[in-house]
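Practice problem 4.
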């Protein structure tokens, strides 16, 4: 008897877990909204005049909907689980931890290795590492909140593309597709953020000392954040019958943060400032 032909590969963009797929779709829908918010603030020059309190309110208006809107519209009956066990909440927990540590330690490498400069004379509430970095520059508190929005978008878009590649015929036939795609997605977002932030409207408050080297070499350094985090974040509730708990989610974010910290320090040790 002839054997049945192999079932066709079902390549997909969104997770087969409907709870995760809903979260990813919402995060993607909200992405252009927060991008427009930041674009408008940049064009109008709000960053140059906002004080500490107003800047934090603005940051919460940008990043807050990633958490608040799902809480209001994604009902427990639809999810079939309590809100704190849903993908949208665990994704926010992961990104909150990862962006917190990334700002606290990682910003020091941006200042001293990549030549990033913050110049916000109107902001005085800062929070960053004591023993890491020269301490010449400091990270405004609002950056922690804004980074949450940035990283939610970077991680979600990367997951959708990585899943599409991983579930394609090419992805299933070659073990190298996934890691190569991770590096490509990581470098893409590192480069894109650098390019987008190199905006004349921001030149007075934010810039890189050598933009060309930051775009080329520095973007590789920045991509260390995502090279470590993307493959870990990918598996968060990816399988419908294997949901992560909050402890595992937090541990995963802390693991990605430590790996990023290690890569940044190794880069500084063996490559040095750009």
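Answer key:
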């Amino acid at each position: 008897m002839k054997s049945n032909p192999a079932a066709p590969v079902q390549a997909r963009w969104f997770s087969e877990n409907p709870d995760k797929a809903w979260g990813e779709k919402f995060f993607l829908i909200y992405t252009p909204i927060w991008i427009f918010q930041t674009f408008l603030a940049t064009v109008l020059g709000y960053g140059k005049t906002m004080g500490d309190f107003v800047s934090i309110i603005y940051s919460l208006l940008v990043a807050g909907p990633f958490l608040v809107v799902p809480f209001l519209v994604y009902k427990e009956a639809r999810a079939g689980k309590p809100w704190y066990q849903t993908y949208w909440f665990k994704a926010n927990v992961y990104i909150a931890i990862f962006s917190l540590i990334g700002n606290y330690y990682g910003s020091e490498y941006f200042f001293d290795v990549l030549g990033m400069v913050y110049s916000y004379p109107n902001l005085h509430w800062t929070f960053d590492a004591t023993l890491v970095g020269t301490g010449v520059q400091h990270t405004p508190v609002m950056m922690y909140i804004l980074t949450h929005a940035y990283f939610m978008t970077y991680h979600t878009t990367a997951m959708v593309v990585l899943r599409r590649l991983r579930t394609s015929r090419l992805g299933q036939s070659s073990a190298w597709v996934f890691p190569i795609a991770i590096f490509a997605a990581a470098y893409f977002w590192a480069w894109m953020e650098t390019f987008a932030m190199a905006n004349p409207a921001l030149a007075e408050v934010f810039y890189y000392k050598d933009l060309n080297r930051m775009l080329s070499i520095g973007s590789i350094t920045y991509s260390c954040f995502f090279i470590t985090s993307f493959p870990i974040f990918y598996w968060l509730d990816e399988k419908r019958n294997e949901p992560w708990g909050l402890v595992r989610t937090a541990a995963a974010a802390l693991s990605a943060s430590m790996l990023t910290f290690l890569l940044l320090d190794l880069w500084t040790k063996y490559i040095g400032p750009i």
